Amino acid sequence: MKTFNPADNIQDLQYFGEFGGVNPSISDSSTYTFLSAKTMFDAFEGNAEGCYLYSRHASPSNLYLGQALAAMEGTETANVAASGMGAITPVLLQLCGMGDHIVSSRTIYGGTYAFMKNFMPKLGITTSFVDITKLYLVEAAITPNTKVLYCETVSNPLLEVADIEGLAKIAKKYNLKLVVDNTFSPLSVAPAKMGADVVIHSLTKFINGSSDTVGGVTCGTQEFIDQLRNVNNGASMLLGPTMDSLRAASILKNLRTLHIRMKQHSHNAMYLAQRFEQDGLKTVYPGLESHPSHELYKSMINPEYGFGGMMTIDAGDLHKANELMELMQERNLGYLAVSLGFYKTLFSAPGTSTSSEIPIEEQMEMGLTDGLIRFSIGLDNDIERTYTIMRECMEQVGVLAKTEVV
Ligand SMILES: *Cc1c(COP(=O)(O)O)cnc(C)c1O
């Protein structure tokens, strides 16, 4: 039996442009003509296969990109959105109504957290935030009104790993939908293959990889994606977070090199994580044996694509962290910027500011400290050279002791 390989699935798609182009033609239109009024009526009713009506409903370029991302995640289909948040918020609003409840990981993307914590209660939807690595806590938080279990495969910023198969079992037992944000681990992890019902990405990060646009996708069953797109009650359709066709076309082109990029991101991050750990720095990377979920994550990933490009180190305190980041930028090792998945290394200090529901003592215990620096490791060709310069920066600001020159 052929094993599931997301990059092969993307490679196996074949598209032709209108004039035999090797890239699909970009649909540069918001609306579409019909030869007969009857066909237009049928299209409104959703009964005119292959016909387009209006680009908020569907456009060829967006469908091509959605198809490629569905192939990557191994789901029936997918719906692209104008941003990651434009994918996440409609999914939650589609699955939950007044009085419903969500059980979510407490360490999730700040925007998703703010939506659940501050926005959804206005609609009568509440969320319990739990330590997702403890399945008994997840199960204990479920109420008769719970509809959704929500997590990120690898969480932001602490790189905690969700046991997706374990969570899927709980979701099944209580008839919940398991929604997984897989932004940090494209290709490496295929959550739908482990029982997730809906898989979401911010395309802004590794998948597009060039930090030139925001974008998002929801991968799921045809039935669920049809619900999101329903003209009468679909959250994606009615809230309107539609991706532009030109962007869909450019993201599709970048998607084709994702497998090569992920291998290099993972290779470089593993190298740096190992070196910094040896140097005595507190380093968090799922590829290190010291990571609390190393064995679990190892069993979840497709080893070809590695443990990913995200790692953290602890610089000791906020002042040192800031000094180090400014110096690393000066030495052109990367940029002091949020976001991830770029060809250059990006670093920022998430600090205690993004840390959701977690009491301060627990934050300390988890390693969510003021001196934490989150790295999205770039595609550097010579990572040894990068390490040498990074080490110099660390010595200069006193994060590492100066090495004796013999
Ligand atoms: C960036 C990010 C998002 C939000 O995506 P946008 O494209 O910025 O809207 C959601 N989840 C994760 C894990 C992210 O890193």
TrEMBL record:
The modification N6-(pyridoxal phosphate)lysine is found at residue 205. It holds the Pfam family Cys_Met_Meta_PP. The keyword Lyase applies. Its cofactor is pyridoxal 5'-phosphate. Keywords: Lyase, Pyridoxal phosphate. Belongs to the trans-sulfuration enzymes family. This is Cystathionine beta-lyase. It comes from Flavobacterium album.
